[in-house]
């Protein structure tokens, strides 16, 4: 979805560039001709306004793509961190359960490790939902 949104934004930018070039060309032709029949002052002002509008739309599209890419990268980093923490907690829980001795893992430590594992799973799930929402928003 992110790639599709990025491609759509790039197509929009390209379309805006083409329209920008057309508007600039029309404005230049209007200025070169100079005759009232070929380009009135109103037409020139309209062409200039269109050119400004197209530049603003292009800038807004570029900003949206950059913001979505940054949000996706941050969400992916969060998921990776949570995966690492999840693996560490699962490993600690497995070691604790396997050892079984009071010296290696008390019941409190086991409960704490289980709680940590549950918390990390919930955080991972929340981060995955955030990524899905960002991708849906970008689409």
From TrEMBL:
Spans of biased composition, class Basic and acidic residues? 38-53, 104-128
Q: Where is this region: Disordered?
A: 21-53, 87-139
Q: Where is the composition biased (Low complexity)?
A: 22-37, 88-103, 129-139
Protein name (record): Uncharacterized protein
What is the organism field in this record? Micromonas pusilla
């Amino acid at each position: 979805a992110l790639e599709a949104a990025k491609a759509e934004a790039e197509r929009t930018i390209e379309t805006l560039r083409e329209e920008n070039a057309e508007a600039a060309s029309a404005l230049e032709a209007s200025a070169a001709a100079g005759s009232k029949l070929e380009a009135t002052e109103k037409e020139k002002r309209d062409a200039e306004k269109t050119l400004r509008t197209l530049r603003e739309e292009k800038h807004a599209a570029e900003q949206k793509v950059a913001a979505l890419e940054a949000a996706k990268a941050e969400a992916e980093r969060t998921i990776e961190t949570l995966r690492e923490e999840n693996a560490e907690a699962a490993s600690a829980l497995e070691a604790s359960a396997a050892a079984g001795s009071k010296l290696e893992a008390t019941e409190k430590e086991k409960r704490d490790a289980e709680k940590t594992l549950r918390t990390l799973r919930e955080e991972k799930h929340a981060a995955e939902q955030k990524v899905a929402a960002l991708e849906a928003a970008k689409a």
